[in-house]
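Re: that backbone. Tokens:
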């Protein structure tokens, strides 16, 4: 996966309106590339790094929620967290001025409120992974309808901006808009690394986790906050990018031949998927670049059909 990330990243730095050879890319990164340095370092490099870091964050978020629910459908985009973060962002765009800070805060608040609602609604009769997923799907449907209503009620210019942002895109990302999101994701990943052992104990079963000294409720709360933080941070910058969080953990698990949903394979797979989807989005209708969310949705839709078919046969 690391080799794939490096190869796709190099291809992303080479590809553009004008093709740059790998030699030019390395020269630009070293500061001796001449006129092409600005294009490669200031335009293409932020996009490639955003795809890697955001893919890592989405893969980790998916692994967290699939471990908590013990269900391959338990990802942020399926149980409504993406839709909740988008609701918060819509409020910032339509009610407030829509500044980057307002988008970030509103997205996180929307995701946290949605996660709390899904969690509380799932507590009746005991917390169940399947129950949480089903309730999350229902909440996701309601939030999607509510988001559509907000867009329809907004002014034309605001509605066009909101719909375009909803597609999920890495176009136009620059260093100024990535420093804070990268820092937030780094802090969240460090916090997750500190709780990774407890998470893997929890994935073996609640009873096993309790006997080894894991406090279930504090652990669930911490993991949910980390997962929501990763999802909402990506959503605030690039919009909701669907299905990466759903597919990456299960693909990573199968590649690693692991019994549970390990974090590192999920993170690396998420980076590979988002990098590949962004490259396809740029190449498919070149010179017009599609939003990466369109490509990730197409890939994820095929994966979801395969996953549901497999689950039905197993049942």
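Recovered sequence:
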């Amino acid at each position: 996966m690391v080799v794939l990330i490096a190869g796709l990243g190099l291809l992303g730095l080479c590809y553009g309106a004008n093709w740059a050879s790998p030699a030019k890319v390395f020269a630009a990164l070293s500061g001796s590339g001449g006129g092409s340095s600005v294009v490669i370092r200031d335009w293409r490099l932020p996009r490639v790094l955003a795809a890697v870091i955001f893919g890592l964050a989405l893969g980790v978020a998916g692994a967290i929620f699939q471990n908590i629910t013990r269900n391959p459908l338990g990802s942020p985009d399926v149980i409504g967290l993406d839709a909740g973060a988008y609701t918060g962002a819509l409020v910032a765009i339509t009610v407030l001025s829509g500044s980057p800070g307002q988008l970030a805060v509103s997205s996180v608040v929307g995701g946290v409120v949605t996660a709390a609602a899904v969690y509380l609604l799932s507590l009746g009769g005991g917390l169940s992974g399947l129950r949480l997923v089903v309730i999350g799907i229902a909440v996701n449907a309601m939030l999607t309808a509510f988001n559509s209503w907000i867009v329809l009620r907004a002014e034309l210019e605001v509605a066009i901006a909101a719909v375009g942002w909803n597609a999920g895109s890495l176009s136009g990302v620059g260093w100024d808009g990535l420093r804070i999101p990268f820092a937030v994701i780094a802090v969240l990943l460090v916090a997750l690394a500190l709780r990774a052992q407890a998470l893997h104990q929890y994935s073996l079963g609640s009873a096993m986790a309790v006997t080894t000294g894991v406090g279930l409720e504090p652990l669930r709360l911490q993991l949910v906050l980390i997962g929501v933080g990763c999802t909402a941070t990506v959503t605030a910058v690039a919009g909701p990018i669907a299905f990466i969080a759903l597919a990456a953990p299960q693909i990573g698990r199968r590649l690693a031949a692991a019994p549970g949903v390990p974090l590192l394979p999920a993170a690396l797979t998420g980076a590979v998927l988002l990098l590949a989807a962004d490259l396809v989005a740029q190449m498919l209708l070149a010179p017009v670049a599609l939003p990466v969310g369109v490509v990730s949705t197409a890939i994820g839709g095929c994966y979801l059909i395969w996953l549901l078919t497999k689950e039905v046969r197993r049942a």
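The longest helix spans residues 36-69. The chain has a mean pLDDT of 85.
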